[in-house]
């Protein structure tokens, strides 16, 4: 029942994005910019960096708390996410066995350090992407992209895509359930059955597009999609963005972990 | 304002695949009328509706909407007069939020932003969905979706509302709400549906279509109570006009209703005591004193109810058959 | 395979973002030249369709493992390259947001890898010429198979290049290629089969749909694909060059050199903190016999460590302890802050 899970996860994440918290109320542009800046800062760390990345956990933790996002749900999604980074990263310890670090007699090779670095980066970037969509409605993100100059055609059809994901996924889910009910074990899940299902779904989709177009025409559509309601960039947005960028920059150039370590040693 | 708001004169239409959907259909609808269009599957109802706003154009014959004769040039104007509401609200609600969706039509009419806002709020108020303004359509229930779909159309302030199976996606309660909403509209209404009870509730006039022609046209009570006419068109009497035969042999009166309820209660024993008491009064009024006594006992007791439910069920069965 | 943020350097990520955005802008401009009201809802709904179809898994014959649809080829065949590319970019955007497939920085790479090749290489240069003369279902199968394989091979190779340029992975180029290409040969074949299956299904059931959707959205004959592709490449190279020039002024240094791509990346010149410590450590580090694994051409990247035969690193324990202690403190502090906010929020409501 992987399909159902994917579908309901999607729906839940979407529902979260319509909550009303201090973070949700920020302008989508603010959150989009902050997220991109965060990701770029994180991946800008060189391959053997580990400790410098740790302070960046502050951002997801703050967002989780301030936006009231269920941590468990997002963490589960992070774990289930495409494992490409892991598969590629795991080769680092194989190819780089040069000892780099010794900790109470255990030798750690450069490969393991760089692998750990990749996995922390993976965690931070994926979590921040999920937190962006959990705190910003998809239409909001589209409007932000539009403001940043992404072409109208792209935005308009992206909004249609979002609107009909839920409708079509539900339709697909019904077909998949019908297939799973009547297929025993692997049978019925072959490629030929799949192409039949997808073909049917395609025909229905085209018919639906036809009806939607009809509905648009009957409400005076003549080629341009107008949207009302621009978002406002408020003082809160300016504050949020300034603080985020400043802190990210400071964390990037200063060795917080080292400083904390030295501080604690000098105290004790 | 012209007297005939919709007039079809000998309209023919054939689809590219050769299906002849309309074969000389003629129909007149006057201002303020509420007309139900019924007929078997494939009788031409949907094709008829598609002609009302010019999505399809007649291949021969004429269609007049208000003062305009429908053709390629006038159809844009005509679409402002005719509000078409689709069977599946998911096809109708294509914008990311309810607000954007209701504003879609008024924005296309070229209205100023403040006028658009007014129209949107007015339309959403009319259907009782103002609170849903900022929700995305996929977060709405079926009933809310269909109400908002209606709002998207009335925000354009059309003269005529045309609907295709407006209640087919609705649960009974939402359907009932929709019916009372429609009854309050003063627009001219054309409703195509298999839901004959809805037509009976909303429309004064009913038209039966068969093989692309009008075969019957008259007051709704007359048409929808003519069993022979209806059955000749793959239809049947509206449920509210039928006396239901039940598997147990009795009729669907209170006692057999109670019988059904008892089975349900026996399974989910969670009904409020007042419900049982209500039914005991009803049983008393029908002269079933023994049944009434058991129901009162059920209302008081909290344990060992199964036996009581069974006993009451038996009494109902006897009562149902004997009545 | 979706490229991932964690494997990218900012310069590579930004370059592919720029290239993909350029391609989106170009396609949008092209679509505007022949406006068609119906196209936008059709594109959007077909995007949702691809998204839904991707969620359905099926069994790959002979392997028992399960696969799913990419969709680029189907879209290109149905919508033509410009619209298909935009839809594919949208599908990937939604995936990056809702499923976090790859991440946001890698989105540019993923749009490039999974959008450009099917829409602007495989479809116009392979599928279309092959199906031009007579449109039998067998031809469609052959054309779709070849296109699917080519598109995915190119996509997989791009993943390798992007990873190599970013210098976060230590996989040698050759090994990486050997790892990626065969796997994507299989995925490409499956994609081709599924594409052909769906197209043939639709052709049999409702041929007029394919025609009506397809017509008028093909590349206009006066546009040469080569021109488009060269244009995109120029954009990519220019932005890449500019960014790397900017970036090399940074202390991080962006690992662009060719030895980086083919050899072992060096330890970056890092300035402060633990990295500095690590570098010190590494400077003093010798190869343990067990670790002495790299030979031959690897030696070139092996730095000074190869010369040093001392067997135990003489790290300054003080600093490494402070690193670990500092990490623990920072983490503890962060979670305390998060927890604190949660508690405050709960009390408020």
Could you provide a short overview of the structure?
With 323 residues, chain B is an alpha/beta fold. Chain B is built from 14 helices and ten strands.
Describe what you observe in this structure.
The complex is a heterotrimer of chains A (268), B (323) and C (349). Chain A is mainly α and 268 residues long. Helices cover 69% and strands 3% of the residues of chain A. In chain A, strand 1 (99-103) and strand 2 (106-109) form a beta hairpin. Chain A is globular, with a radius of gyration of 23 Å. In chain B, a hairpin with a 2-residue loop joins strand 9 and strand 10. Chain C is mainly α. Chain C has a single domain (5-348), classed as Arp2/3 complex 21 kDa subunit ARPC3 (Orthogonal Bundle), CATH 1.10.1760. A two-stranded antiparallel sheet of chain C has the order 1-2. In chain C, a hairpin with a 6-residue loop joins strand 1 (58-59) and strand 2 (66-67). The longest helix of chain C is centred in the middle third of the chain and has 33 residues, at 173-205. Chains A and C meet through helix 1, helix 2, helix 3, helix 5 and strand 1 of A and helix 1, helix 2, strand 1, helix 4 and helix 7 of C.
Topology, pairings included?
The complex is a heterotrimer of chains A (268), B (323) and C (349).
Chain A lengths: L1 H15 L11 H16 L14 H9 L4 H10 L3 H6 L2 H4 L3 E5 L2 E4 H26 L2 H10 L4 H31 L8 H27 L17 H19 L2 H12 L1
Antiparallel strand pairs in A: 1-2
Chain B lengths: L3 E11 L5 E11 L3 E5 L6 H8 L7 E6 L2 E2 L5 H7 E4 L3 H4 L5 H11 L4 H14 L15 H13 L5 E5 L7 H13 L3 E5 L3 H7 L2 E6 L2 E7 H4 L3 H5 L22 H14 L5 H13 L3 H12 L4 H18 L1
Helix pairs in contact in B: 4-5, 4-6, 5-6, 6-7, 11-14, 12-13, 13-14
Chain C lengths: L9 H24 L5 H16 L3 E2 L6 E2 L4 H8 L1 H19 L7 H26 L4 H30 L6 H33 L1 H8 L10 H24 L9 H5 L10 H12 L32 H32 L1
Antiparallel strand pairs in C: 1-2
Helix pairs in contact in C: 1-4, 1-5, 1-9, 2-4, 3-4, 3-5, 4-5, 5-6, 6-7, 7-8
């Amino acid at each position: 029942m992987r399909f159902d899970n994917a579908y309901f996860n999607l729906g839940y994440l979407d529902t979260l994005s319509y909550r009303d918290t201090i973070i949700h109320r920020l302008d989508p542009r603010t959150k989009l910019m902050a997220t991109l800046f965060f990701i770029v800062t994180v991946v800008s760390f060189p391959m053997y960096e580990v400790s410098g990345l740790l302070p960046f956990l502050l951002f997801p933790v703050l967002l989780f708390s301030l936006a009231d996002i269920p941590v468990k749900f997002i963490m589960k999604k992070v774990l289930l996410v495409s494992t490409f980074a892991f598969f590629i990263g795991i080769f680092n310890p194989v190819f780089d066995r040069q000892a780099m670090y010794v900790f109470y007699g255990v030798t750690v090779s450069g490969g393991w350090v760089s692998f750990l670095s990749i996995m922390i980066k993976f965690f931070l970037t994926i979590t921040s992407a999920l937190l962006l969509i959990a705190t910003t409605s998809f239409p909001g993100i589209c409007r932000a992209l539009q403001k940043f100059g992404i072409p109208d055609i792209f935005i308009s059809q992206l909004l249609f895509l979002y609107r009909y994901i839920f409708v079509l996924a539900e339709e697909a889910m019904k077909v998949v359930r019908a297939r799973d009910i009547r297929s025993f074990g692997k049978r019925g899940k072959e490629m030929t059955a799949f192409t039949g299902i997808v073909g049917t779904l395609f025909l229905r989709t085209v018919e639906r597009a036809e009806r939607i177009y009809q509905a648009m025409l009957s409400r005076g559509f003549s080629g341009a999609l107008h949207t009302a309601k621009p978002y406002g960039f408020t003082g809160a947005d300016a504050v949020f963005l300034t603080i985020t960028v400043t802190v990210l920059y400071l964390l990037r150039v200063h060795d917080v972990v080292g400083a904390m370590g030295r501080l604690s040693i000098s105290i004790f | 304002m012209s007297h005939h708001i919709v007039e079809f004169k000998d309209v023919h239409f054939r689809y590219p695949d050769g299906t002849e959907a309309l074969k000389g259909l003629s129909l007149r609808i006057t201002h303020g009328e509420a007309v139900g269009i019924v007929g078997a599957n494939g009788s031409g109802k949907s094709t008829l509706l598609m002609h009302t706003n010019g999505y399809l154009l007649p291949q021969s014959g004429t269609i007049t909407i208000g003062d305009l004769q429908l053709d390629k040039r006038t159809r844009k104007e005509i679409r402002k007069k005719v509000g078409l509401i689709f069977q599946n609200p998911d096809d109708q609600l294509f914008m990311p939020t309810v607000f954007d969706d209701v504003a879609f039509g008024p924005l296309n009419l070229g209205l100023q932003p403040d006028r658009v806002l007014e129209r949107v709020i007015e339309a959403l108020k009319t259907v009782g969905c103002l609170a849903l303004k900022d929700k995305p359509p996929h977060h709405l229930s079926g009933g809310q979706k269909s109400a908002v779909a209606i709002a998207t159309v009335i925000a354009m302030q059309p003269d005529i509302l045309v609907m295709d199976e407006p209640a087919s996606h609705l649960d009974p309660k939402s359907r009932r709400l929709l019916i009372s909403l429609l009854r309050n509209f003063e627009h001219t209404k054309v409703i195509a549906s298999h839901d004959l009870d809805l037509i009976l509730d909303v429309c004064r006039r009913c038209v039966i279509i068969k093989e692309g022609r009008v075969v019957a046209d008259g007051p709704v009570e007359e048409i929808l109570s003519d069993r022979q006419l209806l059955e000749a068109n793959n239809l049947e009497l509206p449920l509210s006009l039928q006396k239901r035969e039940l598997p147990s042999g009795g009729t669907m009166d209170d006692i057999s209703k109670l019988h059904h309820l008892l089975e349900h209660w026996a399974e989910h024993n969670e009904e409020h005591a007042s419900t049982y008491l209500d039914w005991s009064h009803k049983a008393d009024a029908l002269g079933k004193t023994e049944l009434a006594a058991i129901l009162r006992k059920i209302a008081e007791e909290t344990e060992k109810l199964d036996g009581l439910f069974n006993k009451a069920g038996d009494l109902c069965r006897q009562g149902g058959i004997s009545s | 395979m979706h490229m991932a943020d964690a494997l990218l350097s900012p310069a590579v990520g930004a370059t592919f973002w720029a290239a993909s955005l350029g391609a989106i802008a170009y396609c949008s401009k092209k679509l505007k030249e022949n406006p068609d009201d119906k196209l936008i809802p059709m594109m959007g709904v077909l995007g949702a369709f691809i998204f839904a179809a991707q969620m359905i898994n099926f069994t790959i014959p002979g392997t028992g493992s399960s696969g799913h649809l990419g969709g680029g080829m189907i879209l290109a065949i149905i919508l033509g390259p410009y619209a298909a590319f935009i839809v594919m970019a949208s599908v990937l955007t939604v995936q990056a947001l809702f499923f976090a497939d790859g991440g946001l920085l890698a989105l540019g790479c993923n749009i490039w890898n999974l959008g450009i090749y099917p829409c602007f290489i495989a479809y116009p240069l392979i599928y279309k010429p092959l199906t031009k003369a007579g449109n039998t279902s067998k031809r469609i199968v052959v054309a779709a198979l070849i296109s699917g394989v080519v598109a995915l091979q190119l996509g997989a190779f791009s993943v390798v290049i992007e990873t190599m340029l970013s210098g976060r992975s230590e996989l040698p180029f050759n090994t990486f290629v050997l790892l990626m290409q065969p796997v994507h040969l299989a995925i490409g074949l499956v994609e081709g089969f599924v594409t052909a299956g769906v197209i043939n299904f639709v052709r049999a059931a409702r041929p007029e749909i394919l025609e009506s959707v397809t017509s008028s959205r093909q590349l206009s004959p006066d546009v040469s694909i080569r021109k488009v592709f060269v244009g995109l490449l120029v954009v990519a190279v220019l932005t890449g060059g500019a960014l790397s020039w900017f970036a090399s002024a940074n202390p991080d240094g962006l690992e662009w050199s060719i030895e980086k791509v083919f050899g072992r990346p060096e330890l970056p010149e890092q300035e402060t903190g633990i990295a500095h410590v690590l570098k010190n450590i590494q400077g003093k580090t010798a190869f343990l016999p067990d670790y002495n694994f790299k030979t031959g051409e690897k030696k070139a990247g092996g730095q000074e460590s190869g010369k040093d035969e001392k067997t135990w690193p003489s790290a300054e324990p003080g600093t490494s302890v402070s690193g670990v202690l500092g990490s623990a403190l920072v983490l503890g502090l962060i979670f305390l802050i998060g927890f604190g906010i949660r508690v405050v929020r709960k009390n408020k409501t």
